[in-house]
Each structure stands twice: as structure tokens, then as C-alpha cells.
Design a protein that fits this description.
Blueprint: H1 10-13, E1 22-25, E2 35-41, E3 53-57, H2 68-74, E4 79-83, H3 100-113, E5 119-125, H4 126-137, E6 142-150, H5 160-166, H6 170-177, H7 180-188, H8 198-205, H9 215-222, H10 231-246, E7 251-256, H11 264-273, E8 278-282, H12 289-292, H13 294-312
Parallel strand pairs: 3-4, 3-5, 5-6, 6-7, 7-8
Antiparallel strand pairs: 1-2, 2-4
Helix pairs in contact: 3-4, 4-10
Length: 313
Amino acid sequence: MPEQRQLPNQDAWGELYPFRPNYFELSDSFSSGCRCHYLDEYSEKCPAAETRCLLFVHGNPTWSFHWRQLIVSLRGQYRCVAPDHLGCGKSDLQPRPLSLADHIDNLLSLVEWLDLRRVTLVAQDWGGAIGLGCALRASDRFERVALLNTGAFPPWFIPWRIRVCRWPLVGKLAVQGANAFSRAALKMTTTRKERLDPREEQAYLAPYSDWSHRAAVYQFVRDIPLSPRHRTWQTLEQIEAGLPELGRLPIQLIWGMQDWCFTPECLERFMQHWPQAEVHRLADVGHWAVEDAPELVESLLADWLRRSEEALT
């Protein structure tokens, strides 16, 4: 087994993340040799090769820890795969600043390497665009989509709290130097401030403990396109153009309606493309729905998986 990255304070929060590490070595031209960490959890009574797969794709500034409760709950019925994007979690650092298109390439490489089939995408934040971009390029491998507070289209607004983090020098020093983006996320992504205990906060911050390990957090912020001149604007346009193609699949949208970043207007935009989607509006929940209302999200997802599976068989 390859040496795994040891994160700070793991003795304090490690029991919250009771998973075996796995690594996939990328082989493309720019990141050859870089290792992507991922979780691959399933019951021995339900062999992975014969089990439908849930592919959990995280956003910024989180990592696969974000999905821990859903994985523990669902790994008895499904194969649960949750990668850390390059530069995030326990994965290697980025060899250069990566774009949305690069992250899609990396996720697709992992999906193909593991030969994942009958995949249900479960994604949040940046994970939505990354996961949907992957699904559009490997549509024969995906059979369902479940999204939580995300976007997959060029943004028509950028919250000031995000814009500040993009300011030259000031933004870089705040995000990559002071870890302000990650620390702010702990307070601004839930409506119930008591939802995250100190161990959970330590776990969310653990991968981003120094300047070099915060580079990916800053790059995700920089990759938010403000105009069509930005390289990621076109990538998002292409993903949005492909959304109707995915409309043939069972789709669930779970939305924290108090999200100031991916606002209810983002949900409405998805619904324009997917009017048949099953929608759950969580009135008093913020951006991190899995932290704000973990039991409710788990129940909604598990029930939808069961019902939609009956329709697929």
C-alpha cells in the first residue's frame, strides 16, 4: 500500500473518518505521477463488482470528509467512492493551477480506472460541475444524479464574500496565507452554528494546514469565471448545454434555501433544464446541507435511491 498523507490532529478526529485510504496515480502529461486519494467503501456481503456505485464529489474548501456520514449509512447497500480532488484532502498537491476542465479529466480517469458502472453521482458545490462534466463524457456509466447546492452554468452573480477572496495579493494572502476561506466556511455554510463540533472543524481544516496545501483552495476561487474571457466560462457553458441530455436519468435536487452562494435561483436554473427532477427545498438549511441537516439529507437520499432503483430494474 502506498504511503498515505498524514493530516494534522488526525488522532483527535480520526474516528469520525473510519475509512481505508486508496490511491490512484494519474498518468496524463501535466500531472503524471500525482496521486489522487479516494475512498472505496462497500459491504463484504455486497461485492463491489455487483453493486450500484455512489460517486461522491466534494467542493471547495472541503474534501471527502464531507461525505463521511452518508458513506457510513449507505456503504452496506452500495459501493461508495469518494475522491479528493488533486490538491485537496489526502491527495497530492497540484503540479500547476488546475481548472474545472482539469478536475473533470482527473475524475473521468478515476472512473475509468475503477471501471465504475451503474453510477449515481452525488455532488455539492464545485463537485456538481466536476461530476456533471464527467457524466456527460461517460454517460453510459451513469444512471442517476443527486445534487446539493451547486452550479453547472456560468455565474450571473458572484457574492462579495467570494469576490474579496479574488482580489490580487489581498485575496491570495487571506486564502492561502491566513486560511481565511476555509475558516470562514466553518461559520458561513450552516445556519445552526452548533452543528460542527471542534473535532469536525479540525478535520475540515486539516488538509489545508500551510501555504502550499492551501493552493488548491485559492485556485478554485480563482477559477470562478467573472466573464466569458475566463477559460472556465466556456467549460460551464458546455456543461449547461449538456444538462438536457442527462434529463433522461432519475434526478434529485436537495437544496439548502439559506445558501448565500448557490442561492435558490441556482436551483431554479437546474429545474428549467430538469423539470421532472425530484426537488426538496430545506427552508432553514445552508450551503452544507449534509452538516446542517444530516439526518434529513440521509433520509431523503436513501428513500430516493430505493424508489428510483425500483424504476431502473
